[in-house]
Task: structure prediction
Amino acid sequence: MSRPTKANIVIDMEDVDKDDEMDEMGIDATEAKTSRKKRSVVWKEFEIITNSGDMKARCNHCKHNLAYKKGGATTHLKRHLKLCTPRKATLVGKYKGPKQSLLSFDVTEGDEMLSIFKYDKGKVREELVKMFVVHEYPFRMVENEFFTKFCRSLNPKYEPIKRQTLKLDCMKMYISEKESLKLALAGINKISLTSDLRTSNQSIGYMCLTGHFLDSEWKLQKRILNFCPLEPPHTGLAIADSITVRVLKENFEAKEKLHFGGKIFHVRCCAHILNLMVQDGLTEVRDVIENIRESVKYLKLSPSRLYKFNEIVKSLKLSTSKRLILDVPTRWNSTYAMLECAPENKSVFSQYKERDYNYKWLPFDEDWKRAVEVSKFLEVINDVTKVFSGRKYPTSNLFLRQIWKVRKMLNDMSTDNRDFVNRMTLKMKEKFDKYWGECNLVMAIGAVLDPRYKMKLILYSFPKIYPTDDFQRHIDDVRESLEFLYKEYLSVDSQINSSMSSATYDSNPSQAKKQKTDDFDEWVITNSDIIPGNKSEIDMYLDEGVYKPGNEEYEDFDALNWWKANSIKFRHLSKMARDILSIPITTVASEYAYSAGGRVLDQYRSSLKPETVQALICMGDWLRQDFGVELASN
Result:
């Protein structure tokens, strides 16, 4: 098709003008032309409808119906468009000329102030990125029709964006937030690292590296430092041989900053050790657990079976409010929940067997008794795990007392006459001795630095945890390690103080002279306890009695707060306490960074590239920490 000339365009415009003039004069356009399209610009914003047999012109903006006559004038339609409020709101974003300012109330510290509102497109996109990252929404939601309608209902100026644009905005913000985190961590003296594995639906293994530290207010903080793909095999040995441990340990050795020859450099996750110990013990009652598991599964797979079961519960008028729980075989805590609830419905299962001949997994009476006994010792392990899994309070000082509880339970179980209990205890003791047979110096020192325990807990618990001919050696190791670590902190502080001093000053000669003793000094020496002037802070701390908080304060006691309050009294020892008490004893904080409900990335994350997943996981954790948002569980 040939391009129209300027002359042709002028002729077309003149035709349009004539048609509009004919419309306004009330002349039927069909008299001039037998057939033509509506050429008035108003018809771009109106449509012809039939309402109760009459033809009307409906406004596309406000849906208001106006009079219409074929070939009639359009002046009233133009007049309506000038006054149509929804049309004005639509055109506001496209208008480039001077605009009237919008006023809004800005609330600052409780006071309302009248301010000028200015729509900031960049700010909107920034907040949109934060919302999607913090709550882990899929990118495609930004293109959803109703999401766009919702945003426009809040502000008609909102301009929708594509998922690709949102992704690019996320990557830009990730780079910016990463630099901010580097600046924040530059002022941190000591940091502890935890690592954990996660697998996506694409069978890509990811390793999460989390940093734990104390801020200037002595508050525990954590940040995910990296979330990167890890080549198989995905085992604990692979993590230990990866950059998380091996490279860092080599660097510290080269700089001669590896304390105790690396004995306190790497600490195994206590929750994982408990899991291995319990799983080994449960193998001895595998048949009991399998019967209960298959019974619950059989009922839950069919609504009609579950309905019959609940009817029996009602007929027996059981007071139990616990419902049947199906466990996850790899999660012992879910097995504990299943074994805790199932025995309460023992009579219900028996009656259900009489009504359903296809049900084949009814446990025997002896099996129910074994299930109750197993759930009792699992309850102890469950309580200990909850203490270990704390994220908002120090846990290294709580380790020893909880491990002593586990050891005491195993010792009590070993005296039981039942065969299955003895077999379970033997297997769990083997696992306990494998990982905790040698003293964990970090956790022992952490207990000493808890003012409620000090060396008292060491002296009380070690004879019960370790063999008779070996516990004293472990006590001596703890005390020697404590002294050695304190001297290292004292040495570092002395070097800092000496470097800050630009000159030394001689003392006053008159003060330097040896002071003569008189009768009062002799009396004090013979009638009072003298505190040596060279007594170290650690000796002063240990010689004082243990701190006894009130009954209501005991469970909520925070050792870090105590050291913060006593940091002036124990200037050097408090720095050591800061670093030791900030060490986490589990990787639960790393696991919590993921979406709850499994160690597998969800379908939205698995479809993304590894670098995008890294940005979303890391930045999501940073923003949640900044805004105090908890990740919701499934």
